[in-house]
Automatic annotation (TrEMBL):
Residues 304-496 form the Fe-S hydro-lyase tartrate dehydratase beta-type catalytic domain. One of its GO terms (biological process) is generation of precursor metabolites and energy. It comes from Kroppenstedtia pulmonis. Signal peptide: none annotated. This is Fumarate hydratase class I.
Length: 514
């Protein structure tokens, strides 16, 4: 078993940096389904470039390397404690080399353990089988899409869809609703795993288990196979699109599993996974610890099950949109000149800030002048080089809506002119942008290599005690592109897409599977 740690390290590295062929194929089909020049097409082409860069740089596809979750099958008699020890060592090493972001945080103190270990982290599930090999599957599922998981208890009333009863049709409605409620915040286009039945805990477990299926397999249960096909065909008619920009592809995969329940409970649990669907698997020789085979590396046999609807109203044009170059400090006049749909190219100094910093700034001062400045909702992966200088390993945006309670106040208090993030923000921030003269810029979620490439220098950092992702990094950027999705005139692309997708959801109200 000497080689085991090295094998696990290889598995972690591949999972974080190299998307499997079935996922790539689904993204490729999505790209082909969008009309050239639309925002969705541009977002998908950034995503494709990013996937390529991550593989070439052997660096994280997305800066959020998620909750490492292992599913392991072992021969009778295998030493599970030894396997766990090796996993923990491999995790620590992958963190030291910037393959994983230090992501394990004490829930009460907020302290980052710094090495991705902690109470309950990583997650490891063991199962025995009668084969003489070890099978290890790993999924790195980030926080933004995890926050979009949802569990329904049937019967229930669903916005847009009405009553969902305790039958296949009620399940159908829940799944469509789950895609709608995620909007672009889980970095759509996404994959969903659905668990029908169980209790609240096992239902979610079953949903996550579905994510280990290959994107193009066929469900052995004909009813569920029909349901999966139906969802793939119709969820895309919601036209939420990549990053919630509108567009033809919202969902890249849907896998449904079922288990028994007790009479009083009927749960439908949905695990939402972003396009950065990082899962790999290996079989390992139990004597040597060496990798024998990879589980997700074969080319998909069937073509991608993506059906698209051409919907002219949702073809958000990006070509022909204005491109505006800005260098902070930015004036109010420059901001008021911007409109939803403009592409902003930023050069100069920007500052990262996410959950801990926003809360902190509510009743503390800022260590640097933010007048006319730009805040980037981002928790990067950083490594110190041999000369003691910080290097950016990955730096895409995080979900902005979490800062909704603070953002408007922070903009006003410090004179901030632009906020970069992803997924959009709510009514309070929109009003604040209008009142104080600021804009919201949407970067492409998950495109962590693409944006890391725009960062020319790390000028400094404050609040390292918050941990690497939550610290305030001061970054020099060049040609950092993002789209204005909320302007200083009360317009929000996110609000528009949410409203139009709710209208479209209502077309699925009538029973289909009776
Ligand atoms: O934590 C992050 O960097 C991003 C997170 O996965 C998110 O989607 O918001
Ligand atoms: S930022 Fe987006 S792509 Fe990255 S883990 Fe979060 S949801 Fe996934």
């Amino acid at each position: 078993m000497e080689a085991l740690k090295q094998s696990l390290l290889e598995l972690i590295t591949e999972t974080s940096t190299n998307l499997p062929p079935d996922v790539r194929e689904a993204i490729k089909k999505a790209k082909e389904s969008e009309n050239a020049g639309t925002r969705a097409a541009l977002a998908l082409s950034t995503i494709s470039d990013n996937i390529q860069m991550a593989e070439e740089n052997i660096s994280p596809i997305c800066q959020d390397t998620g909750m490492p979750t292992f599913k392991i099958k072992v021969p009778v008699g295998a030493n599970q404690m030894e396997i766990t020890r090796n996993i923990r060592e491999a995790i620590v090493e992958a963190t030291e080399t910037g393959i994983l972001r230090p992501n394990s945080v004490d829930s009460l103190t907020g302290e980052n353990s710094g090495n991705n270990l902690g109470e309950g982290v990583p997650v490891i599930h063991y199962e025995q089988w009668e084969k003489n090999k070890i099978e290890v599957r790993l999924i790195l599922k980030g926080g933004g899409c995890e926050n979009k998981n949802i569990q329904y208890s049937l019967p229930c009333e669903l916005e847009g869809l009405g009553r969902a009863g305790r039958d296949l049709d009620g399940i159908r409605k829940c799944i469509l609703h789950s895609v709608y409620q995620a909007q672009g915040q889980g970095c759509s286009a996404g994959f969903i795993g659905v668990g029908i039945g169980g209790d609240r805990t096992t239902g979610y477990e079953l949903a996550k288990q579905q994510l280990f299926r290959k994107a193009y397999d066929t469900n052995p249960n004909p009813d569920l196979a029909k349901l999966e096909d139906y969802i793939m065909e119709n969820a895309n008619k919601l036209s939420i699109g990549t990053m919630g920009f509108g567009g033809n592809t919202t969902l890249l995969g849907c896998k449904v599993g079922t288990m028994h329940r007790i009479p009083a409970s009927f749960f439908v649990s949905v695990a939402y996974n972003c396009w950065a669907f990082r899962r790999q698997g290996v079989t390992i020789d139990p004597e040597t610890g060496k990798i024998n085979s990879w589980l997700y590396k074969d080319k998909p046999q069937k073509s991608a099950p993506i059906t698209v609807t051409e919907s002219a109203s949702n073809q958000q044009q990006a070509s022909g949109s204005r491109e505006i170059v800005l260098t902070p400090p930015i004036s109010e006049e420059q901001i008021r000149n911007l409109k939803v749909g403009d592409v902003v190219i930023l050069n100069g100094l920007i500052h990262t800030g996410r959950d801990t910093l926003h809360k902190y700034l509510m009743d503390h001062d800022t260590p640097v002048d933010l007048q006319g400045g730009v805040i980037y909702h981002c928790g990067p992966v950083m490594l110190k080089d041999s000369g003691g200088k910080w290097q950016v390993k990955a730096a895409g945006p995080t979900t902005s809506i979490r800062e909704e309670p603070y953002q408007s106040d922070i903009i006003e208090k410090f004179g901030i002119r632009a906020v970069i993030g992803k997924g959009g923000m709510g009514a309070k921030t929109l009003a604040g942008l209008q009142k104080h003269g600021a804009v919201y810029l949407n970067a492409i979620g998950g495109a962590a290599q693409y944006y890391a490439d725009c960062i020319t220098e790390v000028e400094g950092v404050h609040f390292m005690e918050f941990g690497v992702p939550e610290a305030m990094w001061h970054l020099q950027v060049k040609n950092f592109a993002a789209i204005v999705t909320m302007d200083a005139h009360g317009n929000s692309l996110h609000q528009d897409v949410e409203a139009s997708s709710l209208e479209k959801l209502a077309q699925f109200k009538e029973p289909v599977f009776s």
